[in-house]
Amino acid sequence: MFETVVAELHAVMEEVRGRTFRLVSHLDEAQMETVLAPIMSPLAWDLGHVAAYEDLWINQRVAGRELLREDLAALYDAFETPRKVRGDLEFLRGEELREYMATVRRRALEAPITDGDLHELVIRHELQHTETMLQAMTLAGILPPSFAGPAPVSGTGLEMVEVTEGPFELGSAPTGFAYDNERPRHSASTERFTIARTPVTNATWLHFAEGGGYERREWWSDEGWAWKQQYDITHPAPAAAGDPDAPVVHISWFEADAFARAHEARLPTEIEWEKAATWDQLDGIGRVWEWTESHFTGYPGFIAHPYREYSEVFFGDRYRVLRGGSCATHPRVASPQFRNWDLPERRQLFAGVRIAR
């Protein structure tokens, strides 16, 4: 039985690495090494970071070995080297990068496996970084030819379903892999509310935009209006180019909030979202990340694991929670309990909106 688990984890690691390389196979070395957008890392830095993370958590923490390249530890530490400086660093490139990744992987496949949680952490970390890399490719207009974007939904985003009041269990179960911010599982309760059966579509969003959605001050929060004015945000370009029946994507929280206000609605709280996601009436989950009203914070009894910087340093009122996953999210990551988070002005995310009342 245990040998089967080991073989399965190793097979997933190799499958995920193959997927990562396929996503960038259409790019040349210059595209891999260039800063594609000011808020994003060079793609080659992301690949080196993925390997360094694997070396840290599997080869050092699990196997007890020295890091393959101690000199790379700070370079690929996301907190030591913020995105704005990564393009100026001497990160690994070309054949040296590929050899580093291959050597780290060979060592990792030799490491022991205990409960498998840290191996799963490494697998999901790589999958999350490939979504970040797809964000960068989106901003640069160099997405893989095979990337299709969100699939259509059977609705406009304005049809509502009712969710009854009462308690439910929020968060991940105590056994199996989960991120620290998904635990502890606990009882939560909601009042009766309604929530859209699908995310808002491109056609619906264009109707909002053409009806003054980016001009009507009363629909915007003070912070959202200031952001819109500062950056001259006038429309969501992807909405006009996309399938009218597909969910609108690359929408900021500010825009999502304004859309909801314009329709005498609001964004769901993440508690409401998770409760509704367990029902069969919702459609389109996983097409786009869905902004919620909630700020990112820990559940009662939160314990940071396996390191504080995964979740806890982001708690507070700066970040909003997104739920559900997107067309760029691997299914292994996108559970109903998974909590994504980002700044409300971010538009590079594969994010849309589902309204509530």
Question: Could you explain the architecture of this structure?
Answer:
The chain is of the alpha+beta class. It folds into 2 domains: 2-140, Four Helix Bundle (Hemerythrin (Met), subunit A) (Up-down Bundle); 160-352, Alpha-Beta Complex (paralog of FGE (formylglycine-generating enzyme)). The chain has 11 helices and 8 strands. The protein has helices spanning 2-23, 29-33, 43-60, 83-86, 94-110, 117-140, 202-213, 222-230, 237-241, 253-262, 270-277, and strands spanning 160-163, 166-170, 186-190, 193-196, 289-295, 320-323, 340-342, 351-352. Strands 7-6-5-8 form a 4-stranded mixed β-sheet. The protein has a two-stranded antiparallel sheet with strand order 1-4. A two-stranded antiparallel ribbon has the order 2-3. Helix 1 packs parallel to helix 6 and helix 3 (43-60) runs parallel beside helix 5. The longest helix has 24 residues, at 117-140. It is globular. The termini are far apart.
